[in-house]
Amino acid sequence: MRIIAGTLRGRRLNPPQGLPVRPTTDMARESLFNIFNNYVDYEDCRVMDLFAGTGAVSLEFVSRGAKEVTSVEINNQCTEFIKATAMQFGIRNLHVVRADVFDLLKRANRRFDIIFADPPYAIENLASLPDLVFEKQVLTNDGIFVLEHPREYSFEEHPHFWQHRAYGKVNFTFFANKIEE
């Protein structure tokens, strides 16, 4: 795994063996950020990365100049890896939170410009994530929520659905309050 663009471009992530993660592939991450590049001013952007795993998506946002990134992950090995990587890379605007994503969203009191979620594909309440994000109003008015999910899910009927993209087995569904084209 590597960081694709920005100030940390080319830096490699070497997570320890046995982390319970399914990292977003470099190709899918690059495609995701190509979409963001058309809609996001990273310098003013506050990002929350849910189910952060190795922190690759969080680090990509930091590398591209995001103002602040919060990585949320319940697994202690993963949070320790993200913290160690941030320290190794000299990153100061990445905050790592060890928490259950669903509990955190229910009590969240901050708003974010981008929320990215890459839950375990077999997680029981994956389909409820978009509703929870919008019910708890953790997204800014012009923010974007992206959910990575298996192809069995379709969110096209969701009231905040914006677009869907598939890259091999990786599916991204984008949700928004409003998007100016």
Averaged pLDDT, please?
A: 92
In the CATH hierarchy, the third-tier topology is known as Rossmann fold
Proportion of residues in helical segments: 25-40%
Low-confidence stretches: none
Order of helices and strands: HEHEHEHEHEEE
What's the total count of β strands?
Answer: 7
Quick one: CATH class?
Alpha Beta
Major sheet strand order: 3-2-1-4-5-7-6
Radius of gyration: 15 Å
Q: Give the name of the CATH superfamily.
A: Vaccinia Virus protein VP39
What does this structure look like?
By secondary structure, this protein is an alpha/beta fold. It has one domain: Vaccinia Virus protein VP39 (Rossmann fold, 3-Layer(aba) Sandwich). The protein contains 5 helices and 7 strands; from the N terminus they run H-E-H-E-H-E-H-E-H-E-E-E. It has a 7-stranded mixed sheet, with helices on both faces. A hairpin with a 2-residue loop joins strand 6 and strand 7.
